[in-house]
């Protein structure tokens, strides 16, 4: 086209999927986080290229520029990065040495491997956070059965054993009840070459999540602190803002997340998973950091319908070093309930289940990831934002979100409700 | 996968782009409306197939299942419809006989050709609306120069000449100032085979838009009535809800849109473009219908950031006969300003222009369509929702939205603002 300035972002991959003058964001990963980053990017006129494991995966299914390959294969990473304005991730499992190789070749990787190390390895994370003065549970490296049993005694048998790397959704987290169980576990895991650490099993009141976005130039924006509910290690629910949180505590949690983002040089979205604990004597509430995620996070899904800027839009803006959007909530409270595959897949089609849920709860915002059913699999989430017109407050909102999410996978109403 | 019910929506086209158990929505068209329908569908776990004119077009650029073809070619339409749960549109230009052929072959077409006729042909629309008792300006068919000049006298030379079919953005609308100009225009246009009509050139105070969605089962949801601003026939701005609209008038406009949707059997989103007029003597305000659009509409873009349910999500839900979402606004007022290609394309990249706009207006929601620059071309829009914290009310919101949209194509601030 005549009179057109030179494209500052020349496209590699599928050039048809690329708008002139706009960045190409390569996302390593093909899950729901990549899928939702993509819709956010498209709305801003940008294009996303994926490095996906398969063409039918959640994000790959709906993407126009997909490279099929393995994220542990440097050549595949190189191909996906070609011509990209920035490379980012929907998980933390890309080997650091590969990211360094990309950076050496001039690729803009956000977040970088030095920051990512603290989301990849729970021991490195704990050590660094302690060094920064952030509150963490007592912990130790476990390189031998001896390390584990000594720690077991130190924490009065309240032990939580963790795989240092690769865990998610509670896979890689164990709570051995006895010394014998601990010894058995550690022997088996170390024998299989799984690097381990142990920490105190915290007497937690609730779990919180403090989420921020940070740009390479150091701009930060923090969403309100969220309460998250884990069931068997899997996030099932998030309530934003966290109900009945002492304001000072919420502020401290937000500041802590901003400080961690800055100190570790995080770019994009950072989720700081927190434990809320009371001192044994019933003293003042305290927060402890559980772990860090450097990407959009399950506890941030509420932002799609409950905040001026969704975590997916914000992540894209942050890794591109664009000014950040407002993290303000749009309504009162937003509840997010995860849609987790039931033990069996009902005969009723997912489409018909959506109809039933919307007939009962017209205000449910249903997000689905295009994933086939598997027991326990995250296949979607439901957001509900409080409406001044609806009674019952936050507990009622939570009840409704849970009922909706339950119906979507069971095709039954957990409270026995029957439509007329 | 074992234990999986039979897919009620088997995929044609690209089966990788299709999630089991979920509908496939075929959209005929490749513009920004199709692009934004698609992101909405993806969030609900659905898949969209496009019949697009080219692979680089706004929607095709970002779609995983694209059939390149001509929407006037029945075979192309047949291919795009294969295996689709429903066929819908991002424009009204598909020939009715082709839609009837699809329906005869069992394809679910929404909206159907009988409804669409009233969005395709302005004379058919006017005649039908008059028959329904809806308020319309005086009008006539123009099959000869005589028809035109007789009407010219009837309306005291206040004439508006329109192509019956195929117009958009004011192309196909003329306001001849003199009898001679009218004769010249009509002679030329009829000579070129353009079917014409004429109507009174209305003394309009403002333009409004009443938007509703309707499902095949007859459910309806109406958004608040919007004020729309046209500049040289092109929509440049929309304010939702329309400021200072007498509530009774807003209600009447909403009811009228619901009635039209029902009477014409419209499915999906319907926009009823309205003129607000005062009686000559300064009497009571009245509304007149200008025209109908049966698809998401420019005056509904505000819903993406200002309503619980965006018009794109609602259109998809409506054509699939799903329960409709809430059309309630989420904030106070939302202003939408169109981003229209300037006469020349500035050297600063579009990406850098976004940065500048966000630096000045962090709350601007910028939507871009992935389109290359052309003078006057709709390449995006900006939404701004009022924030109780920001002074100046709606006029200030409008000023800011206009400034942002202007910067995005001119790379200059229309008010001379200089960042520090
Ligand atoms: N030290 C601890 N004390 C008590 N409970 C814990 C402790 N560590 C983890 N948990 C529980 O197990 C859950 C999962 O732990 P963690 O977040 O470390 O695992 P993960 O597999 O990495 O999960 P994610 O899906 O969040 O990545 C926590 O949310 C919490 O409910
Ligand atoms: N009868 C009329 N009297 C006065 N102004 C009119 C009249 N008809 C049209 N206009 C002006 O011209 C604009 C475009 O007219 P119309 O909506 O019929 O054209 P269009 O090309 O189909 O536009 P669209 O892009 O909305 O499809 C209107 O929004 C209005 O501003
Ligand atoms: Mg965790
Ligand atoms: Mg019009």
What does this protein look like?
2 copies of one chain form a homodimer. Chain A is an alpha+beta fold. Chain A has 3 domains: 24-109, 3-Layer(aba) Sandwich (Rossmann fold); 138-200, 2-Layer Sandwich (Dna Ligase, domain 1); 206-410, 2-Layer Sandwich (D-amino Acid Aminotransferase, Chain A, domain 1), CATH 3.30.470. In chain A, 31% of the residues lie in helices and 24% in strands. Chain A has helices at residues 32-43, 74-81, 96-104, 113-120, 122-131, 145-154, 179-191, 247-264, 303-306, 311-319, 350-360, 393-410; strands at 24-28, 47-52, 66-68, 86-89, 139-142, 159-163, 173-174, 196-200, 204-214, 220-222, 226-231, 234-240, 268-278, 285-293, 334-340, 365-368, 378-385. In chain A, strands 9, 10, 11, 12, 13, 14, 15, 16 and 17 form a 9-stranded antiparallel β-sheet that branches. In chain A, strand 11 and strand 12 form a beta hairpin. In chain A, helix 3 (96-104) runs antiparallel to helix 4. The longest helix of chain A has 18 residues, at 247-264. Mean pLDDT of chain A is 94; it is low at 1-6. At the A-B interface, helix 1, helix 11 and strand 16 of A face helix 1, helix 11 and strand 16 of B. Bound molecules: adenosine-5'-triphosphate (2 copies) and magnesium ion (MG) (2 copies). One magnesium ion binds next to strand 14 of chain A. The site of one magnesium ion has 3 residues of chain A, from strand 14. Chains A, B: Keywords: ATP-binding, Ligase, Nucleotide-binding, Purine biosynthesis. Chains A, B: Pathway: Purine metabolism; IMP biosynthesis via de novo pathway; 5-amino-1-(5-phospho-D-ribosyl)imidazole-4-carboxylate from 5-amino-1-(5-phospho-D-ribosyl)imidazole (N5-CAIR route): step 1/2. Chains A, B: Pfam families: ATP-grasp, PurK_C, RS_preATP-grasp-like. Chains A, B: Its EC number is 6.3.4.18. Chains A, B: This is N5-carboxyaminoimidazole ribonucleotide synthase.
